Amino acid sequence: MTLFDIAVIGGDSRLVYMADALKKIGYSVICYGTFDTGSDMASAVKAGSLAEALSCSKCVAGGIPFSRNNSICAGVECLDLELPVLYQNAAGMEALFGGLITEEVREYCEQQGICCCDYMKDEALSIFNAVPTAEGAILDAMKNHPAALHGSGCLILGYGRCAKVLAEKLKGLSAEVTVCCRSEQQRAAAQASGLTAEPLERLPKIIQGKTFIFNTVPGMVLEEESLVRTDADVLIIDIASGKGGVDFECARKLKRKTMLVPGLPGRYAPQTSGEGYAAYIDRQLRMMHILAPEGENSNSVGRKEVWN
After folding, report:
1. Which domain of life, per UniProt (predicted)?
2. 65 near 42, Cβ under 8 Å?
């Protein structure tokens, strides 16, 4: 039986590039449920089932989110991409990678002694990922509103990693950028970068006149009290994880145009994101001494024979 270092399963087009990048680093890779008609790499080794992919690999790498409703997330339909199948075939697995990994999967890994690594919890990777996220948000804004960003009133809710990058890029496009967040320290940082900054409790008073609103807060922050004061032609783009932070039902009743756009890097910069995930996996495997690329005194053994 041919054995592989990493099984890349499910995910979107980011994992196509991630698999390719891992191969270039020196890892042997088998894929399942990762490819669609438009992105299939002819050189990729593809498993016939999830059980096959897992049984011949030490590590598994999935997408963002890794799973939802007991199924492993994938851009293609595979009936066996389910967590019970993963659990039944995880014997010998040493590491699992994915994004927004659920507590259930995390607890299973802990019980089985499997290293569980979440892309979203790595600071360096999150900062790296903020760039394509910000670029994607700007592209969506330009595609979905007749006004130019130049000179337009732009409001950013929150001032975390993505918001900081987004603010700088909007400022570079000569937009009028206001940041609204709870943290006094973050407001001070925004002001030091030449931005207007306001506390979140002032949102209803400052929201009028803004053409573009970008939410980055993964919790309800844009509610009726503020939405009723928005301009009729406002475009609200929510890039926060999960269900976002906008009362979309209220916005619909007010006929405000809204967009919930998670996973922007996967839509607009899958190569950049995929290569970033591959670099993260490589760092983690080296640090945990589980695997290293072939030819570097690695612990990956017998890619063409059964592990002892």
Report:
1. Bacteria
2. no
